[in-house]
Amino acid sequence: WHQIIEVKIGPNPDLTAGQIKVVERDYGMENGILVVTVRAALIHYLLGKLGFYRDQRKTPLKGQQIILLNRKEIQQILEVMELQKKVPPFSLPIES
Prior knowledge:
Blueprint: E1 4-11, H1 17-27, E2 34-39, H2 43-49, E3 66-68, H3 71-83
Antiparallel strand pairs: 1-2, 1-3
């Protein structure tokens, strides 16, 4: 409950330059990055709200407007929490 995680998101680089600018403005990003701090216990809710809990067959990564910039770090945190039985098993989508 007490661990704080920084989730860094940015626009999907597969978007056009114009689309990237819109995403940056919509999410209030600075220099293409938005840092969201969240308690570890609530990480699944945040990832779900941001659209990272999805069926890749239905919504490929290219259809995602934002990406996790610190994906490997978040995946490691999720794996540790899973081992500690604090969260259900979850794997972030594989980047294309």
